[in-house]
């Protein structure tokens, strides 16, 4: 018991597990991989569904009426006159709700619930990942896997994950994988989908683990024949389930309206019954006593009790005032509306053969209640297809309307890797400079970029003779104007929303150490060497021009590094990477230390066009008095340009202004 309590305390700080060792992992009492995502199950369906249905006032009223009819002194009607229609109404709604239950059990045939923390499992192409896994090896070169994360973050482009070299060497050998005894120490269960901190110990060597080496529950494996993974979190501990809230009984505006109408009907019914009860009491006093000679009372009931029982008798007699079929009728109307949505040809997307699909019969009412729309820009308003458009190099702008890059001449000799996914002005420039018109797109070299921006930049470099050929965890291979060059990848300083920049440290074949950085202009400018001031002013003018045209901009910089300093920095970097506590803070300090006194190279501008119909759609939403907010990380000038392009901002708007405050009080002050 003491050991179990100690292990539970450790779980609050970090998780510790061993591969292929259920005895050791079992001592921590980790949760298994069984989860419940359905609204009902076989046991709870009847009570929960009945409870949900009786929250509708009309159903509750008829249940109460049924109970009254069981009292002989109150009811003059048989109980089944209410019971039969009530059971029919409840059954129709219950059958509709039960269809979801059946679908749920069809999905639960697989034995994933038996998987435990520390198990090594195999995934195959197009399979759903149903536990949080540490990627060990895959069928792809360099131990890469491609996953679709639409169920997690809505992103449709494939993400790339890569296993450590030390585990990737195991391949698909079940003997080697079965004998693997690596130990993982990582963060406890949490709901942060974008971060993971851990360390893997193999043969007394410690390796850093981050989010790029983890497959989360909810992902789907794509374009990968197989991969092996070590279960880190299972069941309720997975990040997906940590983000799941409790299922709530939801009521639409129509449901609320019907309950209000039923309450009004109740009030009308109660008033009628009260009037009739008073009338009956008056009649009893004046005329009723005469009839006792012919119809003697069974007992001497007091006038008050007699009036009370008479009131409820009238409630039963007048029960048809409350329409028992009201909710069923509305359900059929909702079902018909959902079919109209499914059949709507204007909501059909022929490119992917995708029709609209109403997954709930109340969708029409839910859509009608929307007052605010909060939207991302990239990939939602835009196509998320980036095209390299312009650039500024050492103070010279390339890509003006009169032809891309009128200064200088580039000899093109690499037709086999040319790619036409660049701006037409860039293509025009290439052919103006004497390129052969017989260039074709190679089917052999295809980039899988996690970010479309990176894909556009790499493709542009490829078209000018600097071809990105391959990458391992330790090296990057380029073809520079036909010459193969292999760079050693010393460190990657990752991008995040706070840093707003990314850097790599590489060692060239001649031993030269170089830090290369790309990021937002305001962030990179703060870290430039003072000697770059004049160049920065020229580049800023180019950036403002690009942003005014609605282009996405990045600034590029570099720095030469000293070998002895870098060796010492690398040691501290490794210690920070393998730490569980305070990893992010320690890494941020190291990044800030080395990313200073940079030398400015220039800037790039990439175009991401709006999707078809976006301006018209936003115009219609605005007419419906729906307030729209769009989130973007672009420069202010780019954001304004996109705002006007998509009809968020319109020329007839007067006094458009910018709020630049940082606190709630400052924002309130600026708005006033």
From TrEMBL:
<dbReference type="Pfam" id="PF16209">
    <property type="entry name" value="PhoLip_ATPase_N"/>
</dbReference>
<feature type="domain" description="P-type ATPase N-terminal">
    <location>
        <begin position="18"/>
        <end position="82"/>
    </location>
</feature>
<keyword id="KW-0547">Nucleotide-binding</keyword>
<keyword id="KW-0479">Metal-binding</keyword>
<dbReference type="InterPro" id="IPR036412">
    <property type="entry name" value="HAD-like_sf"/>
</dbReference>
<dbReference type="GO" id="GO:0042995">
    <property type="term" value="C:cell projection"/>
</dbReference>
<dbReference type="GO" id="GO:0005548">
    <property type="term" value="F:phospholipid transporter activity"/>
</dbReference>
<keyword id="KW-0472">Membrane</keyword>
<dbReference type="GO" id="GO:0045332">
    <property type="term" value="P:phospholipid translocation"/>
</dbReference>
<keyword id="KW-1133">Transmembrane helix</keyword>
<keyword id="KW-0812">Transmembrane</keyword>
<dbReference type="GO" id="GO:0005802">
    <property type="term" value="C:trans-Golgi network"/>
</dbReference>
<dbReference type="InterPro" id="IPR008250">
    <property type="entry name" value="ATPase_P-typ_transduc_dom_A_sf"/>
</dbReference>
<keyword id="KW-1003">Cell membrane</keyword>
<dbReference type="GO" id="GO:0007030">
    <property type="term" value="P:Golgi organization"/>
</dbReference>
<keyword id="KW-0067">ATP-binding</keyword>
<dbReference type="GO" id="GO:0140327">
    <property type="term" value="F:flippase activity"/>
</dbReference>
<keyword id="KW-0966">Cell projection</keyword>
<dbReference type="GO" id="GO:0005783">
    <property type="term" value="C:endoplasmic reticulum"/>
</dbReference>
<keyword id="KW-1278">Translocase</keyword>
<dbReference type="InterPro" id="IPR018303">
    <property type="entry name" value="ATPase_P-typ_P_site"/>
</dbReference>
<protein>
    <recommendedName>
        <fullName>Phospholipid-transporting ATPase IC</fullName>
        <ecNumber>7.6.2.1</ecNumber>
    </recommendedName>
</protein>
<keyword id="KW-0333">Golgi apparatus</keyword>
<dbReference type="Pfam" id="PF13246">
    <property type="entry name" value="Cation_ATPase"/>
</dbReference>
<dbReference type="GO" id="GO:0016324">
    <property type="term" value="C:apical plasma membrane"/>
</dbReference>
<keyword id="KW-0256">Endoplasmic reticulum</keyword>
<dbReference type="GO" id="GO:0005524">
    <property type="term" value="F:ATP binding"/>
</dbReference>
<dbReference type="InterPro" id="IPR023298">
    <property type="entry name" value="ATPase_P-typ_TM_dom_sf"/>
</dbReference>
<dbReference type="InterPro" id="IPR032631">
    <property type="entry name" value="P-type_ATPase_N"/>
</dbReference>
<comment type="subunit">
    <text>Component of a P4-ATPase flippase complex which consists of a catalytic alpha subunit ATP8B1 and an accessory beta subunit TMEM30A. The flippase ATP8B1:TMEM30A complex can form an intermediate phosphoenzyme in vitro. Also interacts with beta subunit TMEM30B.</text>
</comment>
<dbReference type="InterPro" id="IPR023214">
    <property type="entry name" value="HAD_sf"/>
</dbReference>
<dbReference type="InterPro" id="IPR023299">
    <property type="entry name" value="ATPase_P-typ_cyto_dom_N"/>
</dbReference>
<dbReference type="GO" id="GO:0046872">
    <property type="term" value="F:metal ion binding"/>
</dbReference>
